[in-house]
What we know:
The chain is mostly helical. It is built from ten helices and four strands, in the order H-H-E-E-H-H-H-H-H-H-E-E-H-H.
Amino acid sequence: MTLPSSAYLKKALTKEKNDWIHGKLEKLNTKESVLFWKQYKRLFLSSDENFIGNLLTEGDNTSQTKILSSNKDKERLLFDTFLTGKHLKNEKFDEKHYEDIQNQLKKIISNDFDADADDQGDADENYLNGEITLSEVTAAIKAQKTAGKSNDGDFFHPKMLKCFSTSSCKFLVVLFNCCLKSGIWPWTSSNITFIKKADKKSYLYPGSYRPITISPYIGKIMERILESRIKVHCKLNNIIDDAQEGFLPGRNTSRYLFKMLSSLHEDR
C-alpha cells in the first residue's frame, strides 16, 4: 500500500478547509460573517507584528558586526543565540553544573534522554502505568485552552480538538496506548516563533525577541494525561514538599513570598 505524498495531503486539506468555509458562509448573516472572518484570520493568517527584519550580529567591536538579511542567516543566528546553550556561558555556574547541563542537552538532541530512575514507583500502581482510557482523553481535550493559540506545524489548531467525535477520541486512545507500550514519542518536532519583546529601542538584535515553542497539539493531549497521572502519583506518595508553591493548582509564588516576608518579620 502506497501512502499519499505530503503535497497530496496538503492539497486535500486545503480543499476540505475551503469547502467548509463556503458551506459555513452560506448560513451566516452580515454580523456573523464579520465575526467569522475575524476568527479565521486569527487562526490561519500570520501576523505582521511578529515579522523579523534585518538582524545584526554582536561582535567584540563594530568592525565584526554584520547585517543579516536572508531568512536562512537570521534563522541560524536566532538558533545559535537561544537553542545551543550559548547564553549559559555568561552565567556564574560552577564547571560541574555547566558540564551537567551540556551533557543533558546532548542526550536530548540525540534522543537518548533518560530521566533518573532512582524512584520508579510501585509497578502495581495502575493509575501511573495502566492503559490510557477514553475518559482521560476526553478530560484532557476539555481542559485544553483554545484562546490565543496558533496552529502547530501540521496546521492543526486546538479548536479542532473540541470538535472530535467519540470515534476520533477512541482513535487517540489506541494511538496513545501504542506510544505508552512502545516507549516511542512520535511528536519530535516543534515550530518556534520569535515574538518581539515590548519597549525595546531596537529590534536589530536577537535579544530583542522571545522564542515561543508551538508543539503538536495531539502530543500535548497525551502530555496532559501523563502530567495528571504523575500529579496523582506524587500526591499519594507525598513526594511534593508542603512548601512547594509554583506549578501547582491553587498556589503561586506570591503565596511563597508572603510566607517568607511573614517569617522575616517574626524573626526580627
